[in-house]
Please model this.
Amino acid sequence: MDKPLFLRTLAGQASPTPPLWMMRQAGRYLPEYREVRAKAGGFLDLCYNPALATEVTLQPIRRFGFDAAILFSDILVIPHALGQKVWFAEGEGPKLEPITGEADLVRIDEALSLERLAPVFEALERIRAALPAETALIGFCGAPWTVASYMIAGKGTPDQAPARLTAYRDPAFLDRLIDLLVESSIAYLCRQVEAGAQVLQIFESFASALPPGLIERLSFAPLRCIVAGVKARHPHVPVILFARGAGPRLEALAATSGAEGIGLDWSVDPAWAAATLDRKAILQGNLDPLALIAGGKALEDGVAAIRAAMGDRPYIFNLGHGIQPQTPVAHVERLVALVRS
Amino acid sequence: MDKPLFLRTLAGQASPTPPLWMMRQAGRYLPEYREVRAKAGGFLDLCYNPALATEVTLQPIRRFGFDAAILFSDILVIPHALGQKVWFAEGEGPKLEPITGEADLVRIDEALSLERLAPVFEALERIRAALPAETALIGFCGAPWTVASYMIAGKGTPDQAPARLTAYRDPAFLDRLIDLLVESSIAYLCRQVEAGAQVLQIFESFASALPPGLIERLSFAPLRCIVAGVKARHPHVPVILFARGAGPRLEALAATSGAEGIGLDWSVDPAWAAATLDRKAILQGNLDPLALIAGGKALEDGVAAIRAAMGDRPYIFNLGHGIQPQTPVAHVERLVALVRS
Model:
């Protein structure tokens, strides 16, 4: 039997139409998601409920037939499983009890307990069993810098100022935290593969604010370590790196990361990326999620521009960031038709 | 008599040490600023009080002998002078009564009234009269896209989603608003020159979230129009464009804008910029403001990296964004010594 289109593309095969999925495709824009979410309790309760996490992961596949499903979870399950207090206040985003220096490290474990994440792996097994063979299953985690910036600030912050200041003031502590997250991410991603994930995506949501003197040490080197660590155990599982806001630094990342896929955020010119980034990198992206909300000409022009830019380069169609809750479902249907036409 | 170092550099002359100023150099990190601010009333009251605006503009020059003073004001004086309701809630950032479509345009004027901005021009005259001859005086305004994003959302917003969605949904309205801001900015900047400004900086604070299909239309083309409009009346006044988050698109901006200076935010690799951007562009930047807060090795390494990257290219030393309130004054003194050593 043929490999799924998504995996063939990540192996470098071109195809008449690209595979398609959307970041945050299991989400609030879907009425069936909102229904499950309402009965799940808190957000983390949903992440840790294998039956419900499976259900919401499958919903967009049933509706749109995307080429890949992505595990419904959150990048903050790693700090949570390390023992940091993490909670999601309704309408406020995540909150954590901040870990601001070496002294606070006593409040978390020295290594990740995979047992605490057992419901995630159970969800992956259920999802893989339920998915059509042609649909790839993506596992994921957050990049160490992005996760560390939440762990240090205790919340999302503009330009990750608390963590960035820590990088200047207390580099030894930050390096230690990043190392812990690298090790944890490798263990977590490998276990995801063993539970059924066929592709892994690492979300570096906060590359934009890292200055040139820090991005290699805090983002690219840890990402490279995770890719190498995962590939040491699972050499054939492709990895996609989504480094939002990396801009021209994507060139260095694509050339050196060891990952098969490079995600493009919506601010990246796909023509620049196609012309500049390592030919071996499979690009993924990058429609502005707001063009999908707007629909009509904005949507059509956006899809056409990405298609034209990619030319004969194999690529994965995606948004340049997560789909927004106010996106009309009809616009997603139109996107699917446009990409597959 | 010699031209000030700042103007000579913008004219393309190299010098043994670069001219130096800091974005938001008149600000809360200075005790003497906080004293004036406390007695001024609201933030806009300070902007519109020529004596106090002059005083705070001069404070950092007296303390540090920077090569340029920048008018103390705010980019939102243009919407305010157009008749939009603008206020600064303590600790919350600016608020405006949103203008979300054509129908709301009746609430503002069809052209900028320079009379309402008379206190700004009076401040410039006083500042120029009080400044040493070797210190250049910078006037400024916000770029149309950045200002429009505040006018539409009524506040600062992550990724300027309301204005970006407007760009897709109601391009005719947004183009009309941008055109009004282009005309207003030209008139405002020209009047600033006539009141004593010797250099003009345009702040495009929000270039990062603009996708490739919008950045030319909403940011670069309007910036080019303003530069051309100002130069039609004042051909010898240099202009600096600070397009924060423009990343690799700076190359196109530098090659086509008609401006003498290109500001670099802290995320831009100065070595990339020096190697890539049009040789005629005078680069300005770009120390991470948090490296200045941290001081010590982070500050020294940051200064050394910029100096090494610029090589023999004439450049202006600055931060990559505004100085933060918690910056120790002693670190600014150290920065000045490092840059001038």
Notes: DSSP finds 15 helices and nine strands in chain A. Chain A has one domain: 5-340.
